[in-house]
Write a structure and sequence with these properties.
Elements: H1 2-50, H2 52-78, E1 109-111, E2 116-118, E3 123-125, E4 130-132, H3 137-166, H4 181-184, E5 187-189, E6 192-194, H5 196-201, H6 211-214, H7 218-251, H8 256-271, H9 284-292, H10 300-303, H11 325-329
Antiparallel strand pairs: 1-2, 3-4, 5-6
Helix pairs in contact: 1-2, 1-3, 1-7, 2-3, 3-7
């Protein structure tokens, strides 16, 4: 009875995610492009006018975040999460997918939206329009991390510029008009003179003016910074919660799907007077090394702080056992490790 009631709800949720996935992907591209445009059009010239070397340093930091953001989003979007082979699969598991009718390796789950079994499935991400699994899980998490860093970076930089536009002396932006003094002086339209202050105070449609002039007005700066601040604030709060949540799961050696499954198992074991042990939890420090792929000479500085296409430790079908994980990470037992 419960299954019959819940099944239509799942169907509706799946249909909605399938429909909005492409839209959300395009939205990510447009919002990030708008943020970069505002950073270069308003924020960078503003800080360069204050202190040229400070502007260069901020540009370097901002571009580092941007490159990592774009790289991890593209790799997370374009990299398959991994699917078990339909034929020739030999695993020590009696679990069979009821939808695919094929054996399921450990940590594999069926995605009702993609209609595929996914290796080490975490969840279906509508922002990437496909599943997060074994091969793209690291890209997804780093995408969230650099999204959060980018939002905080732009909010910190934009706060001073927004304050200047709203409360301080807007003449600090006068350097925008060095080459358009004849336009800024005012252009007569009948009895009206369209100046920067007039643009700022009126909502009257702009006519007979090049769009490039409007981009240099106080009105455009004000509206752009307010809109961007609101969007970045909402995104930063949401992404912060998701980043902390997934960081907690990674520290415990779990995916989102496994968290729910293990929660049920813990209750079951507790009722039986037993203690549940997650066999994929090697301790938080080792879990992070495994997740980030920091083994075989890889370092945090080179393979996390900079774009890297390195692969995860295991193949998504068999998994290293706890007694071998340290020696495998240190590269001493790769040929004779024990797997699930």
């Amino acid at each position: 009875m419960t299954h019959a009631f819940v099944e239509p709800i799942f169907w509706v949720v799946d249909s909605v995610l399938i429909s909005i996935g492409p839209f959300l992907t395009v939205l990510v591209v447009h919002l990030s492009s708008f943020s970069v445009f505002i950073a270069y059009w308003i924020l960078y010239p503003f800080y360069k006018h204050q202190n040229e070397w400070l502007a260069y340093g901020l540009a370097l930091l901002g571009n580092w975040i941007l490159i990592n953001f774009v790289f991890n989003y593209y790799m997370g979007f374009s990299t398959s999460p991994g699917h078990p082979p339909k034929y020739g699969l030999h695993v020590d598991s009696d679990d069979v997918c009821k939808k695919c009718l094929t054996p399921k390796p450990p940590r594999t789950h069926h995605c009702s939206i993609c209609n595929h079994c996914v290796l080490k499935m975490d969840h279906h991400c509508p922002w990437m329009n496909h599943c997060v699994g074994h091969w793209n899980h690291r890209y997804f998490y780093l995408f969230m991390v650099y999204t959060l860093l980018g939002c905080i970076f732009l909010l910190c930089l934009g706060s001073r510029a927004a304050y200047t536009v709203m409360y301080a002396d807007p003449s600090e932006f006068d350097f925008y008009y060095e080459n358009v003094n004849d336009i800024v002086a005012g252009v007569s339209l009948g009895s009206s003179v369209w100046t920067d202050q007039y643009f700022f105070k009126t909502s009257r449609p702009l006519k007979n003016f090049p769009f490039s002039y409007y981009l240099e007005t106080q009105q455009f700066r004000y509206k752009s910074l307010m809109f961007l601040s609101f969007i970045l604030f909402v995104i930063s709060i949401s992404v912060l919660v998701l980043t902390l949540w997934h960081g907690k799961l990674i520290s415990g050696g779990e995916t989102s799907v496994e968290f729910l499954k293990n929660k049920y198992e813990k209750i079951k074991f507790r009722k039986e007077g037993k203690t549940f042990k997650n066999v994929f939890d090697f301790g938080w420090r080792t879990n992070w090394r495994v997740f980030l792929g920091l083994h075989s000479g890889r370092t945090f500085w080179r393979h996390v702080l900079l774009p890297s296409c390195h692969k995860p430790l295991d193949n998504g079908i068999t998994w290293t056992k706890p007694e071998d994980i340290e020696t495998v990470l240190n590269g001493k037992l790769m040929g004779c490790a024990h797997y699930y």
